Write the C-alpha cells for this entry.
Amino acid sequence: FDYFRAKGVPFNKPRFFVGSRLGMVLKTSNMIEFVEEIYNEFRNEKVSGMFEFNHPAFFIRDPELIKKLAVKEFDSFMDHRLVLSEDAEPLFAKALFGLTGQKWKDMRATLSPAFTGSKMRLMFKLMNEVGSKMSKTVCDKINKGADNKVEFKEFSRKFTIDIIATCAFGIEVNSFENANNDFMRIATKATNFNSSGMLLKLIGFFGFPWLMSRLRVKFLDSELYDFFDNVITETINTRERKEITRNDMIDLLLQAKHGKLEYQEEKSSSDGFATVEESQIGKQKVKTVWSNQDLMAQCFIFFFAGFETVSNVMTFMAYELILNPDIQKKLQDEIDAMNAELKGGDLTYEDVQKLKYMDMVLCETLRMWPPAPIIDRMCTKDFLLEYDNKKVQIEVGRNFYIPVYSLHHNENYFPNPNRFDPERFSDENKKNIRQDCYLPFGIGPRNCIGNRFALLEVKTIFYYLLLNFNFEATKDTQIPIKLANNQATFQFEKGLHCALVPRTK
Ligand code: HEM
C-alpha cells in the first residue's frame, strides 16, 4: 500500500484487503461509479494510483499519455493483466484477449485478415439473413396478437446469439422460435456474474490470482467447455470432410490454420466513424501452425466478447431512442428512404454504409454508454514514465487503466457530455472529436478486432427493427435508468422494459 507514496504519485487511499474495490465487494456501486470516482479524485493529475485489492495499478487520465503508452510504447505495454491463467481457464488463456507477447502477435496477425471490410462484406449476407428473418418472426407474432412488451436486453440477446452462432460457429439457432436453445442457455450461464459464487470467484481472480491458481479454481463451468468443444470439433470435422464453404468465421479460421489467409489492404475500409484501424502487427504474415484447440479458443472469445457487448449497445441505443423520439423519427426517415430505394430488393453491405444518421446515433450511443467503460494494459518491459517534470518507474507486471467512460464524459472533450446528441458525429462536427478521447473499441494494436463486425451487426438489426416498429416507453420503463450495482457487468438494474409498437405506414 506504500507503492505510490514511494513514487510520489497521488493515489486512492486503499482499504484493508479490498484496496479501492470496496464497492465491488459490498455491491454498493456500479462499474461507472467506480471509474468516475477514481477519475475525479485527482482532476488535475495526469496519473494517479489505485489498488485492485492488494495490487497497485496506475490510472492514466491524460489522453496524450494514454496514446503514448498504448500506441507509441506498445512494446512495453503489450498485454492485459492476466487474472485467468491457463489452469483456471484454458479457453480464455488461449484466446486472443488472453494471449501474451509473441503468441498474441502471431494470433492477432492470423485472425485480423478475417475481420477486414471485404470479409465483413461476405459475412454480411449471414448477418442480414438472421436480422431480417428474426424481425419478421417478431412482427408476425405481434401482428397475431402476441404481447408487444419486451425486456429489451433479453430481446436483443436473441438477435446477438443467433448472429454470433451463424457467423462464428456456422449454426442456425432461431432463438425467437426456440428460446431455450443450448446456445442461449450456455451464453446466459457464461455471462451471469450476479451470483454470490461468481462474485467470490471474481474477487479471487482479480485480487489473488496466484491463490486461485494454487487452489485450481476454474472460472467457467466445465459444461461450457464441453459444449464449445463438441460444437466446434464437429463443425470443423464436417467442413473439412465435406469441403463446405460458408464464408463464416470457422471457414476463415480453417483457412488460417492451413496458412491460406492473408491480410488484404483495402482502399476505403471504414464501417463507421467508430471503426478502429489494424496496426502493422496485425498485418504481418505468420507461419505458426495452430491446433484445433487454438481455433476453438478464438471461436469462444468471439462468442464471449461479441455477445454481451453488442446486446448492451443495442439496449442502450433503444433506451436513448425511447427518450428522444425526435431522433428515433429522424433515424426511421433515413431507414424508410433506404427501404424505398431498395424497392423490395435485399439490403446490402454497401447500403448499410450509406446509413449516415444510423452511424451518428450508434457512435453517440458508444460514447454515452461504452460497453467497456475501462480497459487495461500490463507492463511487459520496465518503463520510465516521464511527464510534468516527474519520472515514475513502471515495473514489469504492473498495469495501468484507461478510463474510457470518463474520457467520453469529460466536458473538455465532449461539451454537455450527458446530453445524447448524435450531431456531434455529423460530417461537419466529427472533425472536432479527438480520436484519443473517443475509445469505445480501445486503442492501439490491441484494439477490438471485432469492431467492424459489431458496428455492422447493430446497424443491420436496428435497420429491420425500426423499419417495422416504434420503440416506446411503458409504465415499467425505468427513467432515468439505473445501473446494477455490480462492477463486473454493465447492465440496467431492472432491465429495459418497453413496447415495440408496429408502425403504420
Ligand atoms: C459494440 C461491441 C463491442 C465493443 C464496444 C467492444 C469493445 C472492445 C474493447 C474496448 C476491447 C479492448 C481493446 C483494448 O484493450 O484496447 C475489445 C477487445 C476485443 N474484442 Fe471487442 N467489442 C465489441 C464487439 C466485439 C465483437 C463482435 C467481437 C468478435 C466478433 C469482439 C472481439 C474482441 C476480441 C477478440 C478482443 C481482444 C483483442 C486483442 O486482445 O487483440 N469484440 N473489444
In short: Residues 292-323 form the longest helix (32 residues). The chain has a mean pLDDT of 89. The domain at 3-502 is CATH 1.10.630.10 (Cytochrome p450). The two ends are 64 Å apart (CA to CA).
